[in-house]
Design brief:
This protein is of the alpha/beta class. Helix content is 25%, strand content 23%. The strands form three sheets. Strands 1-3-4-8-10-9 form a six-stranded mixed β-sheet. The longest helix is centred in the N-terminal third of the chain and has 17 residues, at 37-53. The radius of gyration is 19 Å and the shape is globular. The protein starts with a helix and ends in a 10-residue tail after the last strand. The relative contact order is 0.11. Residues 35-209 form the Serine/threonine specific protein phosphatases domain. It comes from Triticum urartu.
């Protein structure tokens, strides 16, 4: 039976659990799972409700897998965000104090958390080629990490050819989990796995001939966060 717009909001917990079960089992078996538009919309509605009920600075414990974006503080040592640092960001309490929902401003802390980028060749803060937000050098990154007793920043926001890319002697990593992005980029995707000892490994996703992502290879023990690199 096709779900109507009126019935979308009436999906009970059991029905939602069944959709999640189908997705998980299909993923394990490498099968595609067909969902109706109504089911997809309701998943988004429920996900939004869950996200808004959580704090801005979500504190989670390893082990965890990072796919694309995860915005959290992992074991008080790994800070995850979409974009990057901001000249206005000095401590993590500032992230907790951001009010949601919010319109994304053209400048300032929230804008930078979403849209700033590391600058491989520059120091300090610089102008971004995107025309919005800023860039930050390795010096600004190290200063922020040391001040807040962090080991690593994990972020997304940029297509990287190998699915992941390090910056500043492995103190920041860009994770991009969508291979063949938009059908326009010849990139692979990557997942970052962090175990209970904060050891990191990467799982590489490469598009196959049909354009469907598949696991290609795994690169173990890169880097060792909280231990030797």
């Amino acid at each position: 039976m096709m779900m109507t717009r009126a019935s979308m909001g009436a999906m009970e917990g059991a029905a939602l659990d069944e959709v999640v079960r189908r997705l998980v089992e299909g993923g394990r078996g490498g099968r595609q799972v067909q969902l109706s538009e109504a089911e997809i919309r309701q998943l988004c509605v429920d996900a939004k409700r869950v996200f808004l009920s959580q704090p801005n600075l979500l504190r989670i414990q390893a082990p965890v897998k990072i796919c694309g974006d995860i915005h959290a503080l992992i074991d008080d040592k790994i800070l995850c965000m979409h974009g990057g640092l901001s000249p206005e960001l000095t401590n993590l309490d500032q992230i907790k104090d951001i009010e949601r929902p919010a319109e994304i401003p053209d400048y300032g802390l929230l804008c930078d958390l979403l849209w700033s980028d590391p600058s491989p060749d520059g120091e300090g803060w610089g102008e971004s080629d995107r025309g919005v937000s800023c860039t930050f050098g390795a010096d600004m990154l190290i200063e922020f990490l040391e001040k807040n007793d962090l080991d690593l920043i994990c972020r997304a926001h940029q297509v990287v050819e190998d699915g992941y890319e390090f910056f500043a002697q492995r103190r920041l990593v860009t994770i991009f989990s969508a291979p063949n992005y938009c059908g326009e980029f010849d990139n692979v995707g990557a997942l970052l796995s962090i175990d209970e000892n904060l050891m990191c490994s990467f799982q590489i996703l490469k598009p196959n001939e049909t354009g469907t992502p598949r696991v290609k290879r795994q690169i173990p023990n890169k880097p060792a966060i909280g231990g030797s690199a």
